[in-house]
C-alpha cells in the first residue's frame, strides 16, 4: 500500500507550505493519548507531567475525543474544510507566511478552529464519522445523520474498535451540534492546560522547517522536496511521481488540486496524509523524521536471517578482518564472503578500514543495536 503523488504538470506553485497550530495540537494530543503504550518515548516525560497536572475535565476530554487523533487524524484539525473543485489552474490560495495558518483565527496561541463552527452539520458528521470508523475505504457517511444504513455501518465499524470509538459515534448520531460544541470547548481548554507553552516553544522550529521546504520546492522542484519528507519515499518516472510507503492507498494529483504541506514536531515519526473526498490534500510531515524507513529496516532484519551471514557478523563483531581471513575461518570462497560483505555494507551494517594494501571489515554495532528501534519507528511511519 502507498500514497502516490503524481507530479505530471505540477510545479512548485501547486504546493502551499503552512505552519498550523491546530495541526500541531492534534499531534500533541496524539502523544498524550498513546505515550503509555510505548509510543513517542522522547515525549513521554512531558506527556506524563501534562496528564498528571491537568484538571479532571481535560483528562476526561482526552479520553472521550481520542478517536479524533489516535489512529485516523480528524480532518477538523486541518485547514481547507470547504469542498473544492478538482480542476487544473493556479492555486486557490496564496502561499502563507512562515507563521500563518490559513484555517485559523485569533492569535497563534489560540487554536480555536473557527471554520468548524461554520461547517454544515452534515459535513461535520461525515468527517467525524471517518475518525469514529478509523477508515475511509468502503464507507459512505455523507448522509449518516439521515440514512439508517449509513448510521448502522458507522455503529458496526466503531463497535469493532476500542472504546471510546462507539461512544463517540453514538454521541454524533444523537446530537451532532452538541458534540461539536463539546469538541470546540475541549480544544479551547487545551490552551491554558498545555498548548500555549508548547506552541511558544515549537512554532520557531516549525517556521524554520517550513522555510526550508519552500526553498527546496523553489530550488530543486516538487519531486526532490517531497522525497526529502520521508525516508520511506521513492521517486519514479513516467509519469513523474513520489511514492510514500504507507498502510493505505491514495493517489494525489497536485495538477488538479493544490496540496498543503504542514510541518510537525510532536507528530514525528508519523507522516500523515489527508485526502478526503472533495477536500484539498494535506501532508503533515515530521520535522525530525526517522533516518531509516520501513524498507531499509526490513532489509536489515532479513540480512541477518542467513546462517552464513550471521557467522560472518559474529566474527567481525569482535574484530575487523580481511576478506581472505574471513574466507579461511568460514570455509567459504572469497567471492562468497565478498557478496555477503557487500550486502551488509550496502545496508549500512558493516564499516571498512583501509590499512595499507589491506581492507578490514567490522560490524557497525551501533547500527545493529538500532535495528529494533528503527523497526518500531518505521512501523509507526
Architecture overview:
Helices cover 48% and strands 12% of the residues. It has helices at residues 21-34, 44-53, 56-64, 114-118, 121-133, 148-159, 165-174, 176-220, 222-227, 294-303, 307-318, 323-330, 334-346, 365-369, 371-380; strands spanning 2-6, 15-17, 233-236, 241-245, 250-252, 259-264, 272-274, 282-286, 350-355, 358-363. It contains 15 helices and ten strands. With 381 residues, it is α/β, with parallel strands linked by helices. The strands form three sheets. It has a four-stranded mixed sheet. Strands 2-6-8-7 form a four-stranded mixed sheet, with helices on both faces. Strands 9-10 form a two-stranded antiparallel ribbon.
Question: Which features characterize this protein?
Answer:
four-stranded mixed beta sheet, 381 residues, alpha/beta, 15 helices, elongated
- The residue fraction in helices comes out at 40-55%
Strand content: 5-15%
Helix count equals 15
* Gap between N and C termini: 13 Å
Shape: elongated
Count of extended strands: 10
Mean pLDDT: 86
What's a concise summary of this model?
By secondary structure, the protein is of the alpha/beta class. The chain has helices at 21-34, 44-53, 56-64, 114-118, 121-133, 148-159, 165-174, 176-220, 222-227, 294-303, 307-318, 323-330, 334-346, 365-369, 371-380; strands spanning 2-6, 15-17, 233-236, 241-245, 250-252, 259-264, 272-274, 282-286, 350-355, 358-363.
Amino acid at each position: 500500500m502507498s500514497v502516490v503523488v503524481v507530479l505530471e504538470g505540477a510545479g512548485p506553485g501547486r504546493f502551499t507550505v503552512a505552519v498550523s497550530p491546530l495541526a500541531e495540537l492534534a499531534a500533541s494530543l496524539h502523544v498524550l493519548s498513546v505515550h503509555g503504550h510505548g509510543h513517542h518515548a522522547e515525549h513521554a516525560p512531558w506527556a506524563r507531567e501534562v496528564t498528571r497536572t491537568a484538571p479532571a475535565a481535560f483528562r476526561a476530554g482526552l479520553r472521550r475525543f481520542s478517536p479524533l487523533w489516535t489512529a485516523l487524524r480528524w480532518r477538523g484539525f486541518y485547514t481547507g474544510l470547504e469542498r473544492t473543485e478538482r480542476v487544473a489552474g493556479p492555486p486557490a490560495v496564496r502561499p502563507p507566511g512562515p507563521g500563518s495558518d490559513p484555517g485559523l483565527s485569533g492569535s497563534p496561541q489560540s487554536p480555536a478552529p473557527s471554520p468548524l463552527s461554520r461547517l454544515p452539520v452534515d459535513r461535520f458528521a461525515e468527517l467525524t464519522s471517518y475518525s469514529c470508523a478509523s477508515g475511509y475505504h468502503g464507507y459512505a457517511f455523507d448522509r449518516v445523520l439521515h440514512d439508517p444504513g449509513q448510521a448502522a455501518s458507522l455503529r458496526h465499524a466503531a463497535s469493532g474498535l476500542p472504546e471510546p470509538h462507539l461512544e463517540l459515534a453514538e454521541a454524533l448520531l444523537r446530537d451532532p451540534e452538541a458534540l461539536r460544541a463539546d469538541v470546540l470547548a475541549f480544544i479551547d481548554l487545551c490552551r491554558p492546560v498545555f498548548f500555549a507553552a508548547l506552541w511558544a516553544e515549537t512554532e520557531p522550529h516549525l517556521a524554520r522547517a517550513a522555510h526550508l521546504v519552500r526553498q527546496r520546492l523553489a530550488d530543486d522542484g516538487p519531486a526532490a522536496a517531497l522525497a526529502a519528507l520521508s525516508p520511506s519515499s521513492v521517486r519514479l518516472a513516467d509519469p513523474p511521481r513520489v511514492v510514500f510507503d504507507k498502510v493505505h492507498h491514495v493517489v494525489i494529483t497536485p495538477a488538479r488540486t493544490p496540496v498543503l504541506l504542514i510541518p510537525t514536531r510532536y507528530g514525528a515519526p508519523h507522516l500523515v496524509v489527508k485526502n478526503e473526498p472533495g477536500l484539498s490534500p494535506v501532508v503533515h510531515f515530521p520535522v525530525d523524521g526517522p533516518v531509516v524507513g520501513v524498507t531499509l529496516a526490513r532489509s536489515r532484519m532479513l540480512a541477518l536471517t542467513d546462517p552464513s551471514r550471521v557467522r560472518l557478523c559474529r566474527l567481525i563483531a569482535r574484530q575487523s578482518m580481511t576478506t581472505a581471513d574471513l574466507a579461511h575461518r568460514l570455509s567459504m570462497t572469497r567471492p562468497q564472503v565478498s557478496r555477503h560483505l557487500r550486502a551488509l555494507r550496502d545496508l549500512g551494517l558493516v564499516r571498512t578500514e583501509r590499512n595499507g594494501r589491506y581492507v578490514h571489515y567490522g560490524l557497525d554495532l551501533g547500527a545493529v543495536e538500532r535495528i529494533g528501534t528503527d523497526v518500531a519507528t518505521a512501523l509507526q511511519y
